[in-house]
Amino acid sequence: MAYTIFVLATLPVIMAVLLYQLDTFAPAQYPDHELTPKQPLFVPKRNTHMLHGSEKIGAGELLGPEDVAYDPITGIIYTGTTDGWINRVTVNESAAESKVEKWVNTGGRPLGLVHGHHGEVIIADAVKGLLNVTRDGTMELLTDEADGLKFKLTDAVDITLDGILYFTDASSKYALHEFLFDFLEGRPHGRFMSYDPSTKQTKVLLRDLYFPNGVVISPDQHFVIFCETPMRMCKKYYIKGEKRGSVDTFIENLPGLPDNIRYDGEGRYWIALPTV
Ligand SMILES: *[C@@H]1O[C@H](CO)[C@@H](O)[C@H](O)[C@H]1NC(C)=O
Ligand SMILES: *[C@@H]1O[C@H](CO)[C@@H](O)[C@H](O)[C@H]1NC(C)=O
């Protein structure tokens, strides 16, 4: 108890000292007009039926699994963990029988992952950039910079049916272990980009984003959604049609900070909110 009180009492001091020492730390105000809800979004704080049908897979064997990519042909689930491994999880009849295999270690921190069209797994690695891991486990760097600026926190990736990769670099200033400073500073250091494997070209589509995180392509291939975590919103970037190249709000005023986003193939997007 005394310890807890001590920690709680000294935490602000420690934070202040840390922030003071980071001389490049330059706090700014978030754009209030974008954070002020136009219409309040009402959501239940709890969803009790949600947990009824769920089972824990690989409990105790996976350290901080971030994203998942399911291979419907082999039934294997791929996920990256804090120890740098891309894990292959085979789920048998019951979750208790699931098997975790450490497959390839990126030497970094695999965050986002998606299956490519040639049996490969494409990884958004916070430390390394965008990686291609082929079926036989060979790893290749696809890109780690754009317009002369290196990625510092490559976060999430998705692929269109015609093979173009869309991905985010959450911050060009702060690395993953410093992400809190990015939030506290309140300045937009993130970029939303594309990579075309046929030309090996990386294109910056949007810059000055607030910690752009999860990415998903709409099922009709018309737009890409990405979430800006501290802004509590997700935006749409059009890749086809009249609105091509423009941005719209997909959802704002979320009841927590959005992380990854996935489409379930049945008309629903799932957004992970690690905080409320
Ligand atoms: C799945 O379960 C069956 C029956 O218990 C077993 O024979 C099989 O080896 C298991 N497969 C894996 C991949 O664990
Ligand atoms: C990944 O590498 C494999 C093997 O070279 C290649 O067939 C595939 O097209 C690559 N994927 C991307 C997205 O570059």
What can you see in these coordinates?
With 276 residues, this protein is mostly beta strands. It has a single domain (68-271), classed as TolB, C-terminal domain (Neuraminidase, 6 Propeller), CATH 2.120.10. Helices cover 13% and strands 37% of the residues. It has a 4-stranded antiparallel β-sheet with strand order 1-2-3-4, with no helix packed on it. It has a 4-stranded antiparallel β-sheet with strand order 5-6-7-8, with no helix packed on it. It is globular and about 50 Å long. The relative contact order is 0.11. It binds 2-acetamido-2-deoxy-beta-D-glucopyranose (NAG) (2 copies). It is found in: Vacuole. Its main location: other. Keywords: Glycoprotein, Phosphoprotein, Signal, Vacuole.
CATH class reads Mainly Beta
Our measurement of the CA-to-CA distance between the termini, rounded to an integer number of angstroms, reads: 26 Å
In what order do the strands lie side by side in the largest sheet? 1-2-3-4
Order of helices and strands: HHHEEEEEEEEEEEEHEEEEEEEE
CATH topology description: Neuraminidase
Tell me what portion of residues adopts beta-strand conformation.
35-45%
Number of strands: 20
Helical percentage = 10-25%
Number of helices: 4
| Poorly predicted regions | none
- Report the principal-axis shape: globular
Broad structural category: mainly beta
Radius of gyration: 19 Å
Question: What's the mean pLDDT score?
Answer: 91
Q: Can you list the ligands bound to this structure?
A: 2-acetamido-2-deoxy-beta-D-glucopyranose
Largest sheet descriptor: 4 strands, antiparallel
Q: How many domains? A: 1
Subcellular location: Vacuole
GO molecular function, one term: hydrolase activity
Domain Strictosidine synthase conserved region: 155-242
Keywords: Glycoprotein, Phosphoprotein, Signal, Vacuole
